[in-house]
Every structure is written in C-alpha cells, then in structure tokens.
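User: Show me a protein chain along with its predicted structure.
Assistant: Here is one chain, sequence first, then structure tokens.
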Amino acid sequence: MPIAQRWNRFGVCAGAYLRRALCCWVVLSLSAPSIFSQIPSIPSSTRIFAGPNVSAASGTETADIPVFGSSTACGSYTNGTSLNATVGGFAMLPELLSSAFGVGGGFSITRTSASFATPPLEPTLILDRRSDQVVRIDEEFRLKASYMTIGLEAMTLWHPFKRLQVGVGASVGLNVASSFQHTNQILGPKGYRFADGSSEQPLQGASSLQVAMLSIGPKLNLGYEFTVGNAVIMPHITFSSNAVSPLKDWAWQHYTIGGGISYYIDVTPRHVAPSPLGPGSVAVDELPKPPAAPPTLRANIDLFSVDDHDQRLPEVVISSKETTTRHFVPLLPAVFFERSATAFPDRYRTVTQAMAKRFKVNDLAGNNPVMVQHQVMNVIGLRMQQDTTVQITLVGQISREEAPEIARVRALEVRAYLIRAWGIDSSRITVAPNRKGLLQRSNESTEDGRADNRRVEILSDSPALLSPVITEKKEFTLVPPTLKINPTFDAEAGVKQWELSILHQGVEIGKFSSDEQGEESELMWDIIRENPEAAVPPLFAQLRVEDSTGRVVRAVTSVPLSVATRTLAGNVVAQAGDEEVVSFILAGYDVRSAEIARGNRMLMEEIGKTLRNGARVTVTGYADRLGDQQKNRELATERANRVAEAIRQMADEQGTREVAVHFVGGSIETDRFTNDLPEGRTLTRGVTVMIEQKIAQ
C-alpha cells in the first residue's frame, strides 16, 4: 500500500475514533457532577476536571520473533519501528493529595502499526545459466504488524510549577484486533525477480503469530496548561513502554515518544448547604426509634487433607512422579541439496554465532528424527567445539545431470558454515570432492535415486562425532490429595444462599454452592505447570453466606501445600502396571545392504544394557521406496533377522535369561519418515526394536 494511502486510511480511522471519544466526553460532562457527588471520600474543595484527548506517537521496537516456524534458528525479527494513534478520555483531581499532588485516570483506544525487516541468515546462491556463474541474491524478510488496544490508565500528577504538570503511572489494555503480514523482498542484483515477475511476495511457511490478550506498561506525561474560562487546554508529550510482550510466546519490547492535546472542563460538583431547621420543627413523638439489634449471622470453614484411613494430615501433599525419557536418534553424516543448487535447502536449520552460543542438543528432545537430521551441521559444529582434536573430511557428491564443479562448491558451503557460525578452525576441515564417500550411491534411474546422490558427506575417524543424538525429556505426573471441607454457619434469620470457593494463587480451582442441588463439583488440580518444588503457595477456602434479610458474612481459611517427588529414569515410551515398553530406531542403512549400519553400534550397546530377564523383543525391518519392491521386502526382512541374531548373542554373553527375540518380515514403509526427502528415505532404511519387560524394582 503506498505511504500516502496508508496515512489517508490512518486519518480516517483516527477521525472515527475521535468522534466516538467526543460523544463519550459529552455524556461524561453531563453526568460527571452527579457521579462525583456520590463519592463521599472526595473533599468538597477538590477541583475535578474531565475531557477528551488525542495523541500520536512513534516508537522503536526490539524483538526476538522467529521468521519461520516456532524457532529462531532460521532468523528472527529483532529491530523495527512503530506508529500509533490514540483517542480517549481522561479525568483528573490535580489537588486531591495536596496543593501540588493529585491523581488522574482515563480510558483510551489505540491503533498501533509496526514494521520489521531482517535479511536471511544465509544468502541465496543460484547458478546463472547465462553466465554459468554462482550469483548471490540479496533478500529481506519483512513483517508488518497491526493491532488495536482498548485500555485504562492511572497516574499520579505533580505540579512543580503553576502550569507545568508531570504525570507518572501505568496503563492496562485489552488487545481486540490484530493482523500480521510476512513478505519476502528481493533487493538485488538488478533484474532478478520471483517467478511471477514481482520483487515482493507473501513469505511461505512464515511463523503464525498471535497477539497477547493484555498489554501493561509504564507511562510518563509532561503537559502545560492553558486556561480558557472554566476549561483547560493541555498540549503534552508522552513517553511509554511495555512490561509484557504484545505477542504470545515471543519477546517484543517497544519504547515510544509522542505528543497530543487534551481538553478539560471543570466538573466539580457544587454543594448547597441545607437550611437549618427552626426550633420545634420536629415533634418529639416523631423522632425515629432506635434500630433493633440485627439477627445473629456467623460462618466458619475448615479445609484439610486425609490419608487412606480418613485420618487428618497436618498439610495437603501432592504426589509427583518425575520421568526422564532418553531418546536415541541416529545422525546421518550427510547434508542433501536440491538439483543444481549449492545453497542449503530451507529445511536445514542454520544459526548465527550468537545463536550458536545458546544451541543445546537437549533442545531437540521430542523432535521427529527427520527434524533432528536437519540440525546435523549444528550438532557437528557443537561436537567439534567440545573436542578440538577432531578433524573431518567433506566429500561433495552430484547426480549425473549436474555440473562437476558443483560438488566442490557444496562442500565449500558446508565448510564455510562451520567456520562462520561455529568458529571451527579451517585447518580441521578438509574438502575432497572427488573422493568416494562412506554412503553407497543410489541408482539414478529415478529422481529419488538422483536426489539421494546430491549431498555432502561428513567423514571422521572419531566415532563420537557421528554417534546418535541423545536427548533427555522430563515429564511430571501429579496425583492430587483427598480433601475434606467442613463449612459451618449460624443464621438466626435463616440461610438464603451460601457459596464456597477454593483458590490457588488467585485462581479458582473449585466451587460449591447451595444452587447445585446436591450435585458434586470437581476440583481442577491444574495448579502446577512444570518443575514443581517441594513447597508451593497455600490453598485458600472462602465461604460466603447470605441470610434471608440480605446480610452477608464471609469466612476464609488457608492450608499449607507441598509436593512429594519420586524420580524415574530411562528411555521408556509406555508403562502399564508393572510392565514397560522401550523402543529403539536403527537407521541409515546403505541402499542395498543388510549389514548393521556403522552409526548404530552405540544403539546396539544401549539395547544390551536395557534388556532384563524375561524380556520379549520384536524386531521389524524396513526399506524405502527405491528399486524393486520384492527385493526391498527381502532386504528389510534380512535387516531384521541380523539385528535379532545380534540381540540374542548379546543376551547370551551378558547372562540375560529367557529373552524371547522375534523378527518381523519388513515392508516398504513411508509413514514414519517421509520418502519425499532423501533424509526420510535414508532414515527409513533401518530397523525398529521394541522391548516389553518388567519394570526394574
């Protein structure tokens, strides 16, 4: 949208908001005297002003918003600018606290527009067939955000001089509308455009962003008063920030400075003193009689926990079980490329030096093995940082229709990334594009086979460098206690209604009342999200009783709350009673081989450590969709057979008794890992091992 058109649209919206604010101000002005006259705590000498205000502001935005998906590993929007317009109303009592100090408050409607821009983490390189040269395309990701907030604000007012006013306070807003637009912009070189001829288009796969419900932030206001009759015109300068991010799940901080104008009129109620009564104007027998003593109304509540024998416990105890799940994911020592391309595909996750310092392998816990494989360069970079003696060799590979020099360019791209992002010394990385790799080449009669051969293999003499990725994930299971609640009340006039609430950290987790007609209510024990500590805030019970005369009495009690934790560990994927199921994935087999893949030796050792007496083991082999289907089924069955035989041998050698091992004739499987990607096909070529056994005591 052109800039002129945006300002025109902004002016129309601001005018509509201003008209609504003026209507509210007229109503407030007409009703203010009667409203404020009902507040007995305000001294009659205190002046009260109320009226509308409008303002506009510009701001600086700092954020950490991901460009793609739910991770900043592919880049993030960090800096931007914003423009907002505000209309609303404000009331102030400038001399309420003293001659120089007062208070004020009001409402506002604010429309904020923000924009961010960031270049991709890695430049896009293409092979220009006209010049037969690799060309770098400069791009920029853009985010345009817009949201509307309805808010309230409260301020403390100070008059250091007669007409100068300083206001310090905070605002709370409700975000009622929002929109986010991601685009990709080609900046150069001149002449390069997207396939449709445009230089800017919607960004595919961009993050889905949601605006937060509430906005909270501090505010500073500097104004100067001009008096016109009983009205005050005040131009002002406003500084503001935010204490919570406007987005759910992502950090976004803004700082704004702007100006505006307010128009106030004096709405101080005028008090008329009543005329004193003359002597004898009220007869003695007409004086009101003293009121009778109100009927008795008392309430009490007792909240406590009991054990299995219905005996009272000194505190409420929640049982917590912590389970640590270890995941073993095979790491394929290869990075796959698109046809004739030397730049990394978008599915591979790249980082900057700053992001590399925060990268942790354990953050990959729970990810699909294909997604873990897309972090292969980061895992290799981190391991080479941790062991400075390790050296690697990069072997570039191409399919038959590609230019031979692309193999070396691909290997150099991987080398440059490890040096740039992870700080690996160049002497530790050798490029050998013409050397034979460890992975077998696929038959190139199909596009799948050719895609498998477009890769850079990572070779090393260190087994630990290419070992499986091991992650740990902790989960907490909470078992709520048994509670007893004894409400008692004494209502001489009779009980009209009673209501009982149970609260934790200000959140109502249970409610009972006389309107439920005997139906039971459940407590919502969702009070601890994660990592529960031994002591947590107490529970509160609140009882409200209303008698037939309308009088109300309340009773409140609290009980201490603690957590008893039991810890389990292992790579257990399911438990039922005293049984557990443990799963392992062996992947990355060569295309036409049934030999246990090199990277799976550590997994075989873990399988041996996991086996217990009486274990039942099921081994299933798989093959990808490449080649003849019947031969692939036979190959998958042979893979399962060899792993099963190796497990039997391990059980015999370590003295594990009564281990029953069965292997299942494999199949061509495309559900676990997509066969549309070479990484998925490579992971599909493998074996799964499922162990069912008794839980260790």
